[in-house]
Amino acid sequence: MSLVTASQMKAQTQMALKSPLAAQDPRIRVKKLALIGAGKLGEGLLSGVLGSQLIPVGHVAATVAHQPRADYLAEKYAVKAHTSNVQAVSGADLVLICLKPQQVKGFLHEVKKELRKDALIISAAASVTTGLIERELGHPARVVRAMPNTPCLIRHGMIALARGKHATDEDVALAKEIFGSMGRTVVVDEKHMDAITGLSASGPAYVYLIIESLAEAGVKLGLPRELSTELSAQTLLGASALVLHTGEHPAKLKDMVTTPAGCTIDGLLELEEGGLRVTLIKAVVRAAERARQLVESQNT
Ligand SMILES: NC(=O)c1ccc[n+]([C@@H]2O[C@H](COP(=O)([O-])OP(=O)(O)OC[C@H]3O[C@@H](n4cnc5c(N)ncnc54)[C@H](OP(=O)(O)O)[C@@H]3O)[C@@H](O)[C@H]2O)c1
Fold this sequence. Notes:
The chain is an alpha/beta fold. It has helices at residues 6-18, 20-24, 40-51, 67-77, 85-89, 104-111, 130-137, 169-180, 193-201, 203-220, 225-246, 250-257, 264-273, 276-298; strands spanning 33-36, 60-63, 80-82, 94-97, 120-123, 142-147, 157-163, 183-187.
């Protein structure tokens, strides 16, 4: 994970505050960010937000369940980190929830009285709808829901954002900026979140399986494992970048690799016979169905 150290962070923040441009920067308008549940995803967000100077370090409070983890975060990022959610949300105008899904209701219940009515709530908890958060809080809260994926940890993530009933365009823009520090963002209708969970949130797992299989093929053909894994991973990275960079249909890019009577067409025939396309489609559909079931059980 490319994380920024506490001293780098302090220096960056001081520079940002000294710069007249940054002082007027509308992005730095959050008075207090409460980052609730600074685990893997939460720490990635903390690093992204501080590293890109979106919010000054002195404006951030992070919480976790265990004090040693809080001490680690305070030491590494120079933020206020502790185990009291109530203290963290007190006065916060932005609350970022990175808790496990089953912990969200309890958290909302715990902080309901302390939470500012005008606070923007951004939740990255899988399967927790904006409706559930609005209902639990009992007031027309501004909520944005995010569905990131693990490459966010190295700022190459894919993050889908969906707005709740009361969130404004500005709220969505702020969420885009925050998650933009971790990768590529798209704003979608919340009804697409289950499909997105099955595709881009679960997707890295499918891709690792593909990388692993290609690497095994290299090993079968006599390549050293390390080299084989590097060739395989970089091939997926490069091919993906070409799709995003050119905006071309993947089929057209595939045709560019496929010389008549060449090698690639033989490989493609094997993939078609093995049902790769149908298998991947079914995998995404199954994962999305599971996401829908989890949403239903989580939100009743
Ligand atoms: N990881 C991803 O890439 C990813 C992708 C998509 C969605 N998400 C969603 O993000 C959420 C977090 O996932 P994660 O992988 O980051 O999990 P994680 O590493 O387990 O982080 C959860 C954090 O919550 C803290 N915590 C537990 N109970 C708490 C409480 N009552 N108050 C405050 N903090 C508490 C834990 O503290 P301790 O460390 O002290 O135990 C831990 O740091 C999940 O809802 C997941 O669905 C994650």
